[in-house]
Amino acid sequence: MLPGSGGSVRRMQPASSGSSHRPEPAVTLGAASDGERLDGERIVLAFGRYLERTLAENRAGAAEVLWGPFALPSPRAAVAVCVGRRPGWWLRLAAARSGLHVAFSGTAGRGRPGDVRRVPLTVLDRWDPRSVGPTPAEFDVLAIATTYNEADVVEDLIARLRADAIRVHLIDNWSTDATFDLATRRAAQDPGVVVERFPAEGPTPYFELERLLTRVEDVAHASGADWVVNHDADEVRESPWDGVSLRRGLYCVEHFGFTCVDHTVMNFRPVDESWDDHLAGEGGTGAAGRRLVEGFRWFEFGVHPAIFRQQRAWKPQPTPVRIAAAGGHDATFPGRRVFPYRFILRHYPIRSSTHGRRKVLRERQGRWSPEERAKGWHVHYDEYGESSEFVWDPSGLHRFTTLADLDQRLLVERLSGAGLPHNPFPGESGADDPGAPPPR
User: Fold this and answer.
1) Which domains does the chain have, with CATH numbers?
2) Is the CA virtual torsion 338, 328, 240, 142 positive or negative?
3) N or C: which end of the chain has fewer CB within 10 A?
4) Contact (CB, 8 A) for 283 and 328
5) Residue 4, class by beta-carbon neighbours within 10 Å (0-12 exposed, 13-18 middle, 19+ buried)?
6) For residue 299, what are the contacts with CB-CB under 8 A and spacing of at least 6?
7) pLDDT of 382 over the 80 cut
8) pLDDT > 90: percent of the chain
């Protein structure tokens, strides 16, 4: 049993050339080859624990982590992580014998920017989006977006979601900039966009997140949508599959029998002041927002312990799905089944020095609810003050060009959060792991 795993996990050595041994336990582990590094081994073990926990919690089958050239996944596996370089013929054989398909390929390692000491791996699973029929036109996804002073990105938010046939219900918390006017202008032209101000009676002295999220719960429950996404204005959501849109990804998840999705948070950081230049070129708002994804290429993973639970998209239930008590991070309802792979949440909270100083120092820090602060909420900007820098050094960040390129460096981290610092789930950070193979 793997220490700290909480389940039946065994270690298996690679079989000899004449062996017919087949893995039987829930997660099967072995030894890395001489050219592979201890960091990568630890991350693979952390990924195995993540899969074991997630699949068990959501009644989604068994996982196998296979190390060695002769180990093949068993027919009962829902996920098989094949560690080391495997030729194409072997992957085709493994898929044919197990009934799985090749889902992802990339590497595992410590996740430091620039770190090349990583272990190659391929993930096979039973959830192939190509096996799912076309998304029906009537499949209805609603994004509920909350805003406060997001005029530089709100048009991009609405346009991007509507291009994916996702309805938008925008709840504006009495912005003092052009956010509400820009959104209502779009709503007047598009019946798929609804805009309201909350609370209806007018602005409040403090930002009351729990009250705002209660309104999100009410809108979600009354929406009649097939899926709801609790969305912030400064976010971009993506499915875990390259080339599969958010709406299509949610339809596939439902087809596979799941009712909720988690997310991996990537905080994109400004490394220069080019965002302000874009805004100046567009008169301060508007088309600059459409360059949000293209304008920010450098990111760091969210590593605050609270970030590791981001279950912010769900299938509405007969009774209201509750998110307010957990700060919007955890959609709870009976019978919930969370899809094992995390969707991507690109987050753009600070977009330039000017934006950061205005947002953090003047529009946020003074508006936190004292009652919510007493619960430990709203601490993510506490480190910032008048002398803070709001532009990051790219040498300490990861570069995002394409998803395929990212997976060659950070596949495990983006699919699961395993291996990231401060991961609160036992054994899933990969740091000082007692179950890791010993150094050689």
Assistant:
1) 141-396 (3.90.550)
2) positive
3) C
4) no
5) middle
6) 266, 267, 268, 269, 346, 397, 398, 400
7) yes
8) 75
Q: Could you give the percent of the chain with pLDDT greater than 70?
A: 85
pLDDT tens sequence across 75-127: 999 999 999 989 999 999 999 999 999 999 998 876 555 555 678 999 999 99
Cα–Cα distance list, 232 to 69, 235, 309, 329, 384 (Å) = 45, 6, 16, 12, 21
Contact (Cβ atoms closer than 8 angstroms) between residue 246 and residue 237: yes
Nearest to 218 by CA among 288, 149, 142: 142
Rg (CA), the chain: 23
Distances from the Cα of 401 to the Cα of 79, 107, 185, 386, 426, angstroms: 27, 16, 33, 33, 32
* Token pair belonging to 263: 């997310």
- Which bin fits 74, alpha (ψ -120 to 50), beta or left (φ > 0)? beta
Buried b (16+ CB within 10 A) or exposed e, 107-120: bbbbbeeeeeebbb
CA distance from start to end of the chain: 22
Nearest to 309 by CA among 290, 325, 291: 325
d(CA 209, CA 215): 10
**Backbone phi, psi, residue 209, to 5°:** -65, -45
How far apart, in whole angstroms, are the C-alpha atoms of residue 330 and residue 424? 15
Residue type, 242: D
Report which residue type is found at 376. Answer: G
pTM of the model: 0.88
Residue 206 CA to residue 366 CA, distance in Å, equals 8
Report the alpha-carbon distance of residue 311 to residue 345 in Å, rounded: 11
> What are the backbone dihedrals phi and psi of residue 221, each rounded to the nearest 5 degrees, phi first?
-70, -30
Query: Rounded to the nearest 5°, which phi and psi values hold at 179?
Result: -55, -55
In sequence order, what DSSP letters do the residues of 204-227 get, joined into one string?
-SSB-HHHHHHHHHHHHHHS--SE
| Whole-Å CA distances, 398 to 37, 115, 241, 321, 355 | 21, 10, 20, 35, 22
- With 0-12 CB in 10 A as exposed, 13-18 as middle and 19+ as buried, what is 423? buried
Which tokens go with 81? 């992580």
DSSP state of 84: S
For 180, 209, 349, 430, the CA distances from 195, given in Å and listed in that order, are 8, 18, 22, 44
SS3 359: helix
Which residues are within 8 A (CB) of 343 and not within 5 positions of it... i.e. 6 or more apart? 237, 238, 239, 240, 246, 249, 261, 262, 263, 264, 313
